[in-house]
Amino acid sequence: MTISARSVAEWATAMQDLHLDGDRAAGLAAELARLDIAVRRAADGLDFDSDPARFRHILETAAQKNA
Amino acid sequence: MTGDPSLLSLVEAADAIARRRLSSVEVTQAALERIASWQPLFNCFIALDAASALARAHWLDAELAAGRLHGPLHGVPLAHKDLFYRAGEISTGGSLIRREWRADATATVLARLDGAGAIQLGRLNMSEFAAGATGHNKWFGDCRNPWNPAYVTGGSSSGSGAAVAARLAYGALGSDTGGSIRLPAAANGVLGLKPTFGRVSRYAAMPRSWSLDHVGPLARTAGDCALLLGVIAGADPEDSTSSAVPVPDYRAGLKRGIKGMRIGVFGVDDQAVDPQVRAALDAGMAVLQGLGAELRPMPPLDLARYFDLAEIIIKCEAATMHAPWLRERPQDYAVHVRTRMEAGLLVPATRYIEALSLRGPYLSRFLETVMADLDLLYGPSIPVPLPTLAETDPEAPDADALALMARFSMFMRPFNVLGLPALSVPCGFTANELPTAFQVVAKPFAEATLLAVAQAWQDATDFHHRLPELPA
Fold first, then answer.
1. Which of A8, A39, A61 best probes binding to B when mutated, by most B CB atoms within 10 angstroms?
2. B116-140: b or e for each residue (b if 16 or more CB lie within 10 Å)?
3. How much is the pTM?
4. What is the predicted ipTM?
């Protein structure tokens, strides 16, 4: 599904009380579509147990290994 | 002692004060005199606290005379990006919105510098709300590069880079969400260290993105950086993201040399890195090899993958913090600052959490593959010769300026996403006579390795001794 300028403008008003003109909504639609596709594709590799908090654990575990 | 004490390194100044060859009042007065000459043209400071700096210098001299040395920074004047809070005092974040806002807490890093005897000369210029890679600031005026005031300083810690390069302060703190310590360090010809995520407390430092913000020093020499990092690093009960991994003695490890160090040189295509910068990087590689490092060519990094994650995370977190002002005071942001955040209001929460969740797997893979048999990575800081302020005016960007700005921080953000320590080291000058730099990246909490490389580099080269001159 494409992200249209109109859907962005409506979403911004409904969810964030933010009022965008047509040009700005179109610019944001393109930006959102690009980021959405990039992260959605990357996230295909995430498993069910993925947890953002693992990040710090990995940093600290690596420090112990390298000590 | 004879000569201008402002030209000493931080370590030399601290040593001279501790041995009572110089007083803190003398070095502070010298810094203030230098600031008086440079500030009108370069705009490094948002606010100068001359009276309180001198009062503290007098007090510290009296303390030393009474036999009380307060720490390794006793009597040394520093200055910091205007986003580190001090209770009861203004901290603007480089913004109109917080122009008169007073903090109700003191940043842990400032408290630690205070405890070590440092003096704060004032609050340094920065990009509005730490958003901007060039050093432009609509509300407080652009910070200008000490090597040539027509050129950018890099941002967002613009004043930190410029003030240290111009010898207005012996060192400075900055913050780095996508390169904001390393970019101004590279642009101004000083060292800039983004530590490992969790190494330095961010408590009471204005956030831009909780997940990607790092606090670290900008300084002239590896020894100066090591001294500052040693003071500010370590666990902080006020910052739940700070780490309890022990803090080594960074200064003790400086002279260990780099013989046998395995350095991966990350591949970059010719379109990404300007030939002038590449020539400086190649010359730097030859020096490191001559010092005994083992250089290994690496394939190019997938920069776009990290860049997109950083985009989502920064936009969502910044938009969350700024949402009330984005609705109620949009006119009080520079347009480019506001528009960079707005998308964050519209990204689905699941996409944001996916981006956060990807950091761990990406880091694991990076450590197990790219860094597995390496001590360090070596590559560009800013991949192009510095542009002028006029060429990159964010209030009137053209297509060329936007393309240039996208390249500016492309080698920075991956290491905010990965949380790895990274150091920008001056390594030459391009044809416009502005500095250029290389960047080294180490494994988690291996800041000492970065500093050892910088020390070896500075022992073998003289870029850190070169001095910008005040235009006639």
1. A39
2. bbbbbbbbbbbbbbbbbbbbbbbbb
3. 0.97
4. 0.95
